[in-house]
Amino acid sequence: MSGTISIRNLRKYYGAYEALRGIDLEIERGEVVCVIGPSGSGKSTLIRCINRLEDFEAESEIRVDGTPVIPGRSLAKVRAEVGMVFQGFNLFPHLSVRENVMLAPRRVRGTTRAEAAVQADRLLARVGITEQADKYPEHLSGGQQQRVAIARALAMEPQVLLFDEPTSALDPEMVGEVLDVMKSLAGTGVTMIVVTHEMGFARQVADRVIFMDAGEIIETGSPEQVLGQPQEARTRNFLSAVLNH
Ligand SMILES: Nc1ncnc2c1ncn2[C@@H]1O[C@H](COP(=O)(O)OP(=O)(O)OP(=O)(O)O)[C@@H](O)[C@H]1O
């Protein structure tokens, strides 16, 4: 049960605009699901609803580990169950790298300072940031900051990790280092939903690819089923649709 996500008839309105039009989705523990689709298709909204960052319609149901997601519950509680990595790194600039990673366990679990520091250093080593633990976020490159953000997302030992276009704010030369960390998490038992335009990552790492358009899941299947072979015209058409949207 741990790490499962069950979504039934997920509907989300922004005013009169229906951003999600009845999403049904079952995700197994440890599955890596990449969500792709044109800009504005509802990808971010979908994972923000799972993380309770967005309200959704009363008839909709989201369960994480069998427990209903109730919008508006305290964010601290959410962090304990679901880790999230955003497009921007959202690190606290006045805290050191280590302190950024220590914050949630200290605040939510009351972990002692010493224990939280040991755990933070272990996680920073996991993402290859050991040398920068005492620095402040502004002293790190974008790729390094995003790796710290991943360490921070792991700090509450979540069963579910959500990624919202984690590489799209990065300089191209830093994309690989962040994708490498994400690849290293795949297959470790943590369930991952990754909103991404990185088709190479989706092909290589995803157990399943979901293609969204206009608030609906249009296609779901293995990377080959949804993306086809790289040379297929269908993939080229899809990519140009995504890039030109
Ligand atoms: N806070 C908001 N208020 C009003 N409309 C919103 C809000 N957030 C998103 N939307 C609209 O909902 C739709 C889905 O947005 P969403 O951010 O989920 O798309 P997306 O697929 O993640 O796009 P992108 O790839 O550009 O990030 C879009 O039409 C967007 O304009």
TrEMBL record:
It is found in: Cell membrane. Belongs to the ABC transporter superfamily. It comes from Pseudooceanicola spongiae. InterPro entries: AAA+_ATPase, ABC_ATPase_HisP-typ, ABC_transporter-like_ATP-bd, ABC_transporter-like_CS, MetN_ABC_transporter-like, P-loop_NTPase. It holds the Pfam family ABC_tran. Residues 5-239 form the ABC transporter domain. SUPFAM superfamilies: P-loop containing nucleoside triphosphate hydrolases. It is a peripheral membrane protein. The lineage of its organism: Bacteria, Pseudomonadati, Pseudomonadota, Alphaproteobacteria, Rhodobacterales. Keywords: Amino-acid transport, ATP-binding, Cell membrane, Membrane, Nucleotide-binding, Transport. GO terms for molecular function: ABC-type amino acid transporter activity; ATP binding; ATP hydrolysis activity. It comes from the Bacteria. One of its GO terms (cellular component) is plasma membrane. This is ATP-binding cassette domain-containing protein.
